[in-house]
Design a protein that fits this description.
CATH topology of one domain in chain A: Ribosomal Protein S8, Chain: A, domain 1
CATH class of one domain in chain A: Alpha Beta
Keywords (chains A, B): Oxidoreductase
Strand content of chain A: 15-25%
GO molecular function, one term (chains A, B): oxidoreductase activity
Oligomer: homodimer
Strand order of the largest sheet of chain A: 2-3-4-12-5-8-9
Helix content of chain A: 25-40%
CATH superfamily of one domain in chain A: Malate/L-lactate/L-sulpholactate dehydrogenase, NADPH binding domain
Number of helices of chain A: 10
Protein name (chains A, B): Malate/L-lactate dehydrogenase
Order of helices and strands of chain A: EHHHEEHEHEEEEEHEEHEHHEH
Mean pLDDT of chain A: 96
Shape of chain A: globular
CATH architecture of one domain in chain A: 2-Layer Sandwich
Number of strands of chain A: 13
Family (chains A, B): Belongs to the LDH2/MDH2 oxidoreductase family.
Structural class of chain A: alpha+beta
Largest interface: A-B, 79 and 78 residues
Pfam family, one (chains A, B): Ldh_2
Largest sheet of chain A: 7 strands, mixed
Low-confidence stretches of chain A: none
Radius of gyration of chain A: 20 Å
């Protein structure tokens, strides 16, 4: 990529992102939550979901699509379930509050679910899964999104890239941490390859007629994880996430949701749905025992021989924790455009 | 395939499978549950997990690896969580009882989890997810299994094919139903291709050195879903299933578990772990509302245009329900060897 980049210390970036969202009208609590989630992604190396999104959110806060001063409504319906109306505020505020509520209920009930409707983009799902893991819970965070992934065997997009994130605490170590879209690549990758005029990897995208293509300029939608042969698996997973995030909460289904980007409509609410679950190992064999087993599991994973000499086998999240260490020390690299917009 | 096959009426097969398991010593309740799960798979077209497995189970019941007369122990630890010790009996008995308990707790708590250790192979995970859906619950069933799937980027198998099954009730229709391994293909497919001396599909299996191969005779282990490029996604999912099924319940981790097949050891307990969860839509927006949304979702899916003219786009489970209809009418096709063993 020929694009110019700028390296910014994490603390400076964090302060600026918060201020930038506040300037766009976001309430202190929602700007703080969004900043925390964006910094999670920027520090862990998930730049697509990092600080650059603040610019998008500010546009939507100003346009009215995101409510700058949401009033979250929580309705606890049972010992383990709470419903949240996110009042169209920044999804990160809803996300942290919802996972917090799920953890609170899991303390007694053993598991807690907070089902969220009337939300907006919540950034990287992993932020909320890790929030649960930091409280010694197994956290699971799901969200639906606007459709840009083909249904398996169909010529039209039907599901979003619907992320699944999970995290689990580990004795004497950082959490196991897994955050994935249910497509092989994000659509941003297609945009990047267009700008580079470079062939896409095989079996990840399709044309408007549903034909698999490697030409990024012809790529109209993504294929579900598993590609042309096994995409029914990725599509089934995406469907499960739609069911848990949207059908259960009353949010808009993926195919009916207005797009997050590439639209002039900055005003209409999108009614995104999320699903947050915390599972409390204390109500199973005990949190210390669970964390010990997790340590054993990861130790046994880490000694698996690699197919590439010199390249160690990593557990989910391990690379991200390494990037976080490096970026806390060395700063976060921003593209010139994001830097100029945020720091102008 | 040149193998001879025999078509058997479903009711006849069901009676014979039950009797066959009883003859191998299985208690009535456990033989009944195993028969129900095997017939689920045989009817839905999942022949790898159907009636043929009765022969394997009988061998293990006689060898002592499966306890023919298990005494299930259930310990409810909170409003939403129960732990089960399956006493090394047929995993199907544990499976139905555990999902039943999860549903019972979900009635009040909104979600129920039953965590099972000291179990054995439970057949097709989908049987238990559907059991929950038949009670108007969203059902999720997971299990770990002995390692035959490479860790992404490693030369050794580390996770099992670890299935994920989910089902959800639909207004005026059969449940949405998704049952998948976290590898692209099951290892049985490799065995089949060996017997046919036919090249495997690309990107699904690896040699003992971890090199991707299409030669079924060189294939030593499977690749996780996503293959060589995106297998970290399948491996992460498999890991999540190991964590929920085994680390949480105290079952044996995949890499330490003795193999299900290809072993002379018919005596040693395997301590397989399962995770069953029922989510009660009644504690969200109401079961009728949820089922109505599911109907809308599937209606919108069903009108998606197909990439192959004349081949309709199907929702997860739709093909399986069609096969079930056909097999209830026309009978179930068994390979000659299974037929001879069961009906001799």
């Amino acid at each position: 990529m020929t694009e110019h980049t700028v390296c910014v210390p994490a603390s400076l970036l964090e302060g600026r992102v918060f201020q930038y969202l506040c300037e766009a009208g976001a309430s202190t609590v929602s700007a703080r939550a969004a900043t925390q989630a964006l910094m999670h992604a920027s520090l862990m190396g998930v730049d697509s979901h990092g600080a650059r999104l603040a610019v998008h959110y500010a546009t939507m806060l100003r346009g009215g699509r995101i409510n700058p001063t949401p009033n979250l409504t929580l309705t606890q319906t049972s010992s383990a379930v709470t419903l949240m109306n996110a009042d169209n505020g920044l999804g990160h505020y809803a996300g942290y509050q919802a996972m917090e509520k799920a953890c609170e209920q899991a303390l007694q009930a053993g598991v807690g679910i907070c089902s969220v409707a009337h939300s907006t983009h919540f950034g990287a799902a992993g932020a909320y899964a890790l929030h649960a893991a930091s409280q010694n819970m197994i956290g699971i965070a799901l969200s639906n999104s606007d459709a840009n992934v083909a249904l398996h065997g169909s010529t039209v997009p039907f599901h979003g890239t619907n992320p699944l994130a999970a995290a689990a605490p580990v004795q004497d170590g950082l959490p196991w941490f897994f955050d994935t879209a249910t497509s092989s690549i994000p659509f941003n990758r297609v945009r990047l390859y267009r700008s580079l005029d470079k062939l896409l990897p095989p079996d990840v995208a399709a044309t408007q007629n549903g034909q698999v293509t490697r030409n990024p300029h012809d790529a109209f939608m993504l294929l579900p994880l598993g590609g042309e042969s096994y995409g029914f698996k990725g599509a089934g997973l995406a469907g499960l996430i739609t069911i848990l995030s949207a059908a259960l909460s009353g949010a808009t289904l993926d195919a009916d949701m207005i797009p997050m980007t590439d639209t002039e409509d900055h005003k209409t609410y999108r009614n995104v749905g999320h699903f947050f679950m915390a599972i409390n190992p204390e109500k199973f064999l005990g949190a210390s025992h669970f964390k010990h087993i997790m340590k054993t599991y990861l130790a046994s994973l880490s000694v698996c021989p690699s197919t590439t000499p010199g390249v160690p086998v990593l557990y989910p999240g391990e690379r991200e924790w390494q990037i976080r260490d490096a970026r806390l020390n060395q700063g976060i690299i921003l593209d010139q455009q994001t830097y100029s917009t945020l720091f102008s």
